Amino acid sequence: MEEQILIEIDGKDYPVKPPSIRTWAMLDILQSVNAEKDYTLMLVSTSTGIEEDLLRQANFLQVKQAADFLTKYFLEMGERFYSFIDFKDKRYKFIDLNNMSFGHFIDIDNFLQKDESYRKANMNELMAMLYWEEGETKYDVNKVMERKELFKDLEIKYLHGALRFFLVLRKRLQRNIPFYLKIKWKMKRLLRPLLRIGVGMERLYIWLVKTLKTWKK
């Protein structure tokens, strides 16, 4: 059970609730357009339940410190990788990367080729491709679309954990250079007929590094 975090504003403690993927996407957009005041208000409000009108009347320094703390706290929560997610009375399991189908791989790759604004606004779609309902045995686009809508309300910690997992996986593969090169060569040979030489997971890695660096700023 995770420790309950409290935020104090004007002498009153408020329990913190992690934002959903949908809310984090909106916050990310505010950051990207340098709307710092709106970002601060939305982050503290959605995380504590305090109405924005009340926050506007609260002590400026306390609200700003709360936003800085929450940003750091939510990013650090994502350092844990979740193999399973229990959400809305169902259990979801992270995909078996060793047995990914070609169609599944292509759909992830297609997602990563979308423009930056689409990716930021639809991280729930990526999560829907990375986590399957327990018991599923094959890739089903219709089920992915169902999960895409459902996962809008998934806590952001699961997304951050999944992204970090890919970074750790890449580093581990690189430590074993012969194995890493063998995997990369196989990917190139598989995708050469489509002129998509190994771009899928490579693009995923590059984009995740960029995304995580942006969130840390």
Topology:
Blueprint: E1 6-9, E2 12-15, H1 21-32, H2 36-48, H3 52-57, H4 60-77, E3 84-87, E4 90-94, H5 102-112, H6 116-121, H7 123-130, E5 131-133, H8 141-150, H9 156-175, H10 177-191, H11 199-216
Antiparallel strand pairs: 1-2, 3-4, 4-5
Helix pairs in contact: 1-2, 2-4, 5-11, 7-8, 9-11
User: Class by helix and strand content?
Assistant: mainly alpha
What is the radius of gyration computed over CA atoms, rounded to a whole number of angstroms? 19 Å
Q: Biggest sheet: strands, sense, closure?
A: 3 strands, antiparallel
* Whole-number mean pLDDT: 77
Low-confidence stretches: 176-202
Per DSSP E runs of 2 or more residues, the count of β-strands stands at: 5
Number of domains: 2
What are its keywords?
217 residues, mainly alpha, 2 domains, three-stranded antiparallel sheet, two-stranded antiparallel sheet, 11 helices, 5 strands, elongated
In short:
By secondary structure, the chain is mainly alpha-helical. The protein is built from 11 helices and 5 strands.
Polypeptide structure, described:
- The protein has 217 residues and is mainly alpha-helical.
- The protein folds into 2 domains: 6-77; 84-216, no CATH class.
- Helix content is 63%, strand content 9%.
- It is built from 11 helices and 5 strands.
- The chain has helices spanning 21-32, 36-48, 52-57, 60-77, 102-112, 116-121, 123-130, 141-150, 156-175, 177-191, 199-216, and strands at 6-9, 12-15, 84-87, 90-94, 131-133.
- A 3-stranded antiparallel sheet has the order 3-4-5. A two-stranded antiparallel sheet has the order 1-2.
- The chain is elongated.
- The two termini are 29 Å apart.
- The relative contact order is 0.12.
